[in-house]
């Protein structure tokens, strides 16, 4: 037992490795990168989701295994695994966004976080450290950078829980030996600092990574690893997303989101959104963005006269794609999508004629008059809402249970996936 005031020393295998090994580890890291260049990894939109009501939204920020080496889709990697595991626990829907870079360091992560709208997330998961473990980054430097990162997240998104996973170096076949053991020992030293950091910060939680992450070339092992990893994270996240009671970080999730929305600079937010619109519109018009099959599916599923992908651009709403509609573009002031952009869930107007917001809408008159509207917001990879997937019909809908908003959300995510494929700067 330690005497009063005596400093606890980590076990030998958690001490920082000798700097003399750094050149050898750099050579080894180069070999690992070369091997990974031939390994399968997801090329689809960087998110995972599980269907359900009252959707919980999470962000994963990471490096190394977070990229999903060894599987073909992020639905099979950590985002999809976490979303499915969380929904199995909560009974609610889940969407997990991913921002992952192969060489992302914790010291650089604050700059990446600054590019994201953190207001919409119920929790943020940090999967970092594989780069630092390979480079033998000083545990003190790691601790200081991690403190700064978590402080920045909590400053920009007060009350949002932050979960920090254990460090897992990237392995490829044939890389074993002494250098692996050195890297593992250094990862353990970083984990010790991470756990101490989370103990100091009220909104931070340390989540050890279960078992070993499989070699990226082992597809079956990779699936099992991501499944176990997602389940372990979901078990911790679920307790922090209870919407009916105040959690350890203070306030109900929806109340915290509403407070943060009120504090934001509306002009700056709109400038960011318009910049995203310009980028998306340019990409869509110069690329083969095929949305017709999704809109056709939406029309059949909801039995409506029309389905649209709308974009709000400065003072107007234009149609990026349309099916079964002769509807003309309308001014922003007459747009239904304006209201869809204000909510993270579906906007449903069962009878336009009875809704005071739309009493003078041009959709109520003319050859293509409409009485029913439902829309779900379309977002960029960094979270700006630029438009909506909409379904419209000339007849009102009276029943309260005849609109499957979960399906509308699924179709909107399909639209996003198609659009994101053509963005040259899409993050992953």
Would you mind describing this structure in some detail?
It is a single chain. With 428 residues, the chain is of the alpha/beta class. It has a 6-stranded mixed β-sheet with strand order 1-3-2-4-5-6, sandwiched between helices. Mean pLDDT is 80; it is low at 1-15, 243-248 and 250-263. The protein is 39% helix and 16% strand.
Q: Roughly what is the average pLDDT, rounded to an integer?
A: 80
Indicate the overall shape. elongated
The total of beta strands comes to: 12
Which band does the percent of strand residues land in?
15-25%
The rounded distance between the terminal residues' Cα atoms is: 47 Å
Order of helices and strands: HEEHEHEHHEHEHHHHEEEHEEEH
Which percent range fits the helix content?
25-40%
Short key terms for the protein model shown above:
single chain, 428 residues, alpha/beta, six-stranded mixed β-sheet, six-stranded antiparallel β-sheet, elongated
Topology at a glance:
Layout (H helix, E strand, L loop, with lengths): L21 H15 L10 E4 L5 E7 L15 H13 L3 E7 L5 H8 L9 E5 L2 H6 L3 H18 L5 E4 L12 H23 L3 E4 L11 H20 L14 H11 L2 H21 L5 H11 L3 E8 L2 E8 L6 E2 L5 H4 L6 E3 L22 E8 L5 E9 L11 H16 L8
Parallel strand pairs: 2-3, 2-4, 4-5, 5-6
Antiparallel strand pairs: 1-3, 7-8, 7-12, 8-9, 10-11, 11-12
Helix pairs in contact: 2-7, 3-5, 5-6, 10-12
